[in-house]
Amino acid sequence: MNRAKAVVLAICLSAPIAQVQAQESEITLGKSTFTARCALCHGPDASGGGEIAELFKVPPADLTTLAARAGGSFPFSDVYELIAAGMDQPGHGDSEMPVWGDYFLADTLEDRGVSPGDALEIAAGRIFSVVLYLESIQK
User: Fold this and answer.
1) pLDDT, tens digit, 9 for 90 and up, residues 34-74
2) Rounded distance, CA 139 to CA 65, Å?
3) d(CA 118, CA 68)
4) Where in this chain does the record put each Cytochrome c domain (predicted)?
5) How far is it, in rounded angstroms, from Cα 139 to Cα 135?
6) What phi, psi does 91 have (nearest 5°)?
7) First to last CA, the chain
8) Mean pLDDT across the chain, nearest whole number?
9) Which of 45, 65, 86, 131 has a C-alpha 20 to 30 A away from that of 137?
C-alpha cells in the first residue's frame, strides 16, 4: 500500500472516533452549562429536585424522563425550542423558566465582543450542547 492510500485509510478509520469524541465534548459542555444554569431548579441530576424547586407553583420537570414521556423517543427539537424560546402552557400560566436563548445570546455579545451573527451561532451551540446532555441522561 502506498503512503497516500495509507493516509486516506487512517483518516477514514479515525473519523468515527473523532465524531464520538466531538459529541462527548459537546455533552461535557452541555453538562457544564446545565450545572451552572439549570441545576438550581431542576437538580444536579436533572430529576426536578433543585435547591429552589419548592418555590415554584409548578415544580420543575424531571428532565431524565423526557424520552419516556414522549413515547420513548427523545424530543430533541422540542427540547431545543423550549430552552431557546421558553414555554407557555395553557392552564399553567406563564412559565417561570427563563428564556435561555436570549440569555446565551446576551452573554455571548457582552462577554466575548463578537458579531451578532457569530453570537447567534454560539448561543445556538450552547443550547444544542445542553440538549445533547439531556438526551444522554434519559432513563
Assistant:
1) 999 999 999 999 999 899 999 888 889 999 999 999 999 99
2) 6
3) 35
4) 25-138
5) 9
6) 90, -20
7) 47
8) 81
9) 86
Please classify residue 123 by burial: count the beta carbons closer than 10 Å to its beta carbon, then call 0-12 exposed, 13-18 middle and 19+ buried: buried
Q: Where are the beta strands (DSSP E) in the chain?
A: 88-89, 93-94
Contact 30, 129 (CB under 8 A): yes
Q: pTM here? A: 0.77
| Sign of CA pseudo-dihedral 102, 37, 133, 59 | negative
Residue 32's Cβ-side half-sphere holds a number of Cα atoms within 13 Å equal to: 8
Q: How far apart, in whole angstroms, are the C-alpha atoms of residue 58 and residue 134?
A: 20
CA–CA separation, 86 vs 94, rounded Å?
9
pLDDT tens figures, 8-36: 444 444 445 545 565 889 999 999 999 99
